[in-house]
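Whether sequence alone determines local backbone shape is best considered at the level of individual chains. Part of our work consisted of pairing the sequence of a single chain with a tokenised description of its backbone. This step matters because it turns folding into a mapping between discrete strings. For completeness, the protein is quoted in full, as a sequence line and a line of structure tokens:

_____
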Amino acid sequence: MKKLVAIGGGTGLATLLRSIRDYPIEIAAVVTMTDDGKSTGRLRKEFDLLPPGDIRKCIAALSDNEDILLDLWQYRFNKGVGLKGHSLGNLIISAAKDLYDGNFELAIEGMCELFSTKGRVLPSTLKDVQLSAIFDDGKEIRGESKLRKYGYKHQIEEVKIGGKIEANPKVLSAIEGADYIFIGPGSLFTSIIPNFLLEEVTESFNTSKAQKIYICNASTERGETEGFTVSDHVEALGKYNIFVDLVLINNRKFKKGSGDGFVMPVSIGQGTKSKYNIRESNLVNNVNPLYHDVEKLGKEIWQIIIKR
């Protein structure tokens, strides 16, 4: 069975995992650990917990019982002292960590076993890490949730983490043994690139013999990639020594007015096809064309695998 590693975070990584879950592939999801917003941010501060939010989404996406899990895990309390705003899934992961004597990694493995996930969910690092960004006005903002907001008016020039952070050894092993490594879709500067700010991850990625594929977002993202073309996305990856063999892009034309003035379809950009190995397909959802369609994306990934 072919081994596939998916690297990212947030809703984008969950979409990818959901798209390939039922294919005969051995899956390992590498999840960024820089989220600090909402319920996740509070649990990080109050319980010294690594970010559970993206982990929760990936477990749900890979589970046989996804529909039930999504309703349960995505539930947020709308009242209650100390409970309001928290996701039930995040609280369960926090409790599991305590049950496993403070071992976050074992807690995740336990949750994956409990919910019969079709693959492994691996935090990119087991160390506490904070993301910061330098913007086009020279200002540095610390904290993922804060830099997203600041990005509404300023362009990110660089993202970084404080100091040299060790990567999760199981992530390095998965990358080294992979047949395929998929990056994206997802927030470029806050979900994808942060994984590669761990030097060991980038080194393992670039020395791996796996075919490396970048799934470019179907739409731009306010606060991160407004005005970006496909070329802009790939060049941004290159600045962090992230080099891929293939770029998978959506080629379905959007109806006028699909964007909101800030979020718009990602255009391929002039000269992109001559610079990169591009694979085009209709990948977007018919109802909301700003996002990838799970079924379409899964079929396209499977075609890449069986034709190699």
